[in-house]
Amino acid sequence: MGPVSRGQEARTDSLPDHLVEWRMVRVPGEGQVKPFWIGETEVTWNLFEVWALRLDIAQDQQAQGADAESRPSKPYAVIFSNFGHHGFPAICMTHRAATEFCQWLSAKTGRRYRLPTTFEWELAAEGADNGPLDQSAWFWDNADDTTHKVATKAPNPRGLFDMLGNVAEWCDQATGSPVVKGGSWKHKADQVSIAASLPEEPQWSESDPQSPKSRWWLANGQFVGMRLVCED
Length: 232
Hints:
This protein is of the alpha+beta class. The chain has a single domain, classed as paralog of FGE (formylglycine-generating enzyme) (Alpha-Beta Complex), CATH 3.90.1580. Helix content is 17%, strand content 15%. It contains 5 helices and 9 strands; from the N terminus they run βββαααβααβββββ. The protein has helices at residues 45-52, 59-63, 95-109, 118-124, 133-136, and strands spanning 10-14, 21-27, 36-39, 113-114, 168-172, 178-181, 197-199, 224-225, 229-230. The radius of gyration is 17 Å and the shape is globular. The two termini are 23 Å apart. Mean pLDDT is 91; it is low at 1-5.
């Protein structure tokens, strides 16, 4: 992936002891919102599965159930069937899983990662809806019922990819309630916009056979993903 265009300040972050890197772009503050860094792309499986599959923990520790309380249970493979892996957005995580992942990443790197607020996300997304939607977003009309590799459509004016479509992204409202923003591959054009916002619904876990439903995975959440914000 090439450098961010249009003069944006950007950096490459990495995970210690792993060959995983991701790009962060600086977004100027506005009003009472301080400047922040946000992921150039949605979080991909390349990074998310290090946490989700405990790839940073030695096998003997895994066998002992190390860190079992703050790591997901192993998902049943059917929820990822026909969806891409390397370079594709991580999907199906609950808001709790997304939040725990950010806490783990913060501890691993020494940086303060978290989910964006809805205001931060909308600020970062500015201009994403300029021009034909087909050029910048994967949605119902062009996605063929699946996710796509990140950064394969045009970026928005801030140099951020897939702010609209591909997967809807977890954000935190001012009230503390989570929503997903931007629409996804399964949504029609009028549902793919900067204003698009959906609260979690029971249908997102409808086919989960567990009782109670998984606190980590959304069995029907193949359209749900996440993007990182970093405070430093």
